[in-house]
Structure to design on (483 residues):
């Protein structure tokens, strides 16, 4: 059939059938498309003609068209014409399911297509993950892990725990964070299923649809849809090498607004906010009554000494909500994170958390308690810091060697990431696709910003030195072809 032609209906619905007429029509149209009899681009007759031809009411045809349009199979144009726009097998198959119309009805937004692709491609055997924000699996402390599992033999039960989490773990966290200046009581700690859940809780508990979250640009938060799904607006604030430019945060009193910052070993730029910027930011936010959420996901991954303490450590009034996690230091699979905040905030988050999941895994909480109390966590941290420092040095050498004059970057003082900007404009999507073909998975910078970045988030935490070099070599081969 010529694409410009109108689909012909040599068929009428079976009025004796128990299947509703509109369903029969949908099924007929779907089968025609599926069999290839009607191609993408073909015009359907007008609704009036179709109603007359099939001997049904106009309203029946309207229902059919609405459903096919909702499923993305047809599209009406402004002149009243309707054409077929999809013949994908999945859509046609889903015509059979009553759930199809509901799949995207919910308010939570889908991931960016690029992140969905990354999440899928990460599990391609042999792919070199040059942007993954996780520790190399070979660094998992198997011996310490075995020891920590022994402690499970003595746990009293695996019943639900208190709303704010295992008391012993909260005490262990209080002791742990004291090392970097945070003073809290166990009642000011909430255990969460990773700090992602803490962000989710904040979005539904303390913010509303007209709230604004100021964030660094770029920011990890942009790679998520948590706040946006709740109707909350993210507003980007630029950074320099000392961190977020606090005086660029608007001070309008119109809506509720908070600042989300990831000041130490920032994801994705690797920047660590200077002490003077921390102080200035804290004072600016206090004067302008902007509460702060401080994400300390990479807090303890400093390479030389911990010369910057969390902003939370300056907070005497409970103005800062601090988020911690063991995902970057030990294991994201444990799903253990924590919130440190004033008691009313902890109680509110804990109450909603109970309604969401009744608590983070009790097994993980007991294991983490043992890791902290036995000193194994500290020991492991020391090893990880030393390893990451070596990997950072190696990564910097390799990038200079293979991409030296093509890119600019700062050497991070800790964490996982090098924010690598191309000196000339590079089509990031094309680069992503070409890299995948070459067996390299990238994290393009644009997923962390609302403006084009011309950058990649390079991670040295996941690949071994050899694989890192191989991945950068392949990347440089692709770029050489273009320049
Ligand atoms: N915050 C930051 C800055 C992160 O990079 C991540 C993980 N990429 C998280 C929070 C969430 O980590 P998790 O939920 O595993 O604790």
């Amino acid at each position: 059939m010529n694409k410009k032609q109108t689909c012909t209906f040599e068929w009428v619905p079976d009025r004796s059938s128990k299947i509703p007429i509109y369903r029969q029509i949908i099924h007929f149209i779907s089968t025609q498309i599926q069999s290839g009899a009607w191609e993408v681009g073909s015009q359907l007759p007008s609704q009036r003609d179709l109603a007359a031809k099939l001997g049904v009411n106009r309203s029946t045809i309207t229902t059919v068209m609405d459903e096919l349009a909702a499923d993305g199979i047809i599209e009406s144009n402004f002149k009243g014409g309707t054409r077929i726009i999809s013949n994908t097998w999945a859509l046609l198959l889903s015509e059979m399911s009553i759930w199809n119309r509901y799949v995207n009805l919910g308010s939570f937004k889908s991931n960016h297509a690029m992140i969905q692709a990354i999440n899928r491609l990460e599990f391609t055997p042999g792919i070199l993950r040059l942007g993954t924000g996780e520790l190399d699996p070979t660094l998992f402390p198997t011996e310490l892990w075995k020891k920590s599992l022994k402690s499970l033999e003595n746990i009293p039960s695996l019943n639900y725990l208190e709303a704010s989490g295992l008391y012993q773990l909260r005490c262990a966290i209080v002791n742990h964070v004291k090392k970097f200046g945070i003073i809290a009581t166990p009642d000011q700690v909430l255990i969460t299923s990773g700090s992602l859940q803490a962000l989710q809780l904040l979005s539904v508990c303390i913010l509303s649809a007209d709230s604004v979250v100021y964030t660094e640009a770029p920011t990890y938060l942009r790679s998520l849809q948590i706040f946006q799904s709740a109707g909350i607006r993210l507003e980007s604030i630029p950074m320099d090498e000392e961190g977020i430019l606090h005086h660029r945060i608007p001070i309008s009193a119109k809506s509720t607004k908070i600042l989300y910052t990831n000041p130490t070993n920032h994801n994705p730029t690797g920047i660590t906010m200077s002490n003077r910027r921390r102080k200035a930011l804290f004072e600016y936010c206090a004067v302008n009554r902007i509460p702060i959420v401080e994400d300390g996901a990479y807090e303890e991954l400093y390479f030389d000494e911990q010369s910057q303490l969390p902003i939370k450590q300056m907070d005497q009034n409970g103005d800062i909500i601090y988020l911690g996690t063991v995902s970057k230091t030990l294991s994201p699979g444990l799903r253990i994170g924590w919130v440190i905040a004033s008691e009313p905030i902890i109680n509110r988050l804990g109450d909603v958390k109970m309604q969401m999941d009744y608590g983070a895994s009790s097994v993980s909480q007991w294991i983490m308690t043992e890791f902290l109390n036995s000193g194994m966590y500290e020991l492991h941290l020391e090893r990880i810091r030393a390893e990451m420092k070596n990997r950072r040095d190696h990564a910097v050498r390799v990038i200079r060697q293979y991409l030296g004059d093509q890119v600019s970057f700062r050497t991070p003082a800790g964490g996982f990431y090098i924010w690598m900007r191309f000196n000339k404009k590079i089509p990031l999507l094309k680069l992503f696709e070409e890299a995948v073909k070459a067996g390299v998975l990238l994290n393009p910078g644009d997923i962390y910003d609302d403006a084009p970045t011309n950058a990649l988030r390079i991670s040295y935490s996941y690949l071994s030195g050899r694989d890192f070099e191989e991945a950068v070599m392949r990347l440089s081969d692709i770029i050489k072809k273009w320049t």
Remarks:
- The domain at 21-106 is CATH 1.10.10.10 (Arc Repressor Mutant, subunit A).
- The chain has a mean pLDDT of 93.
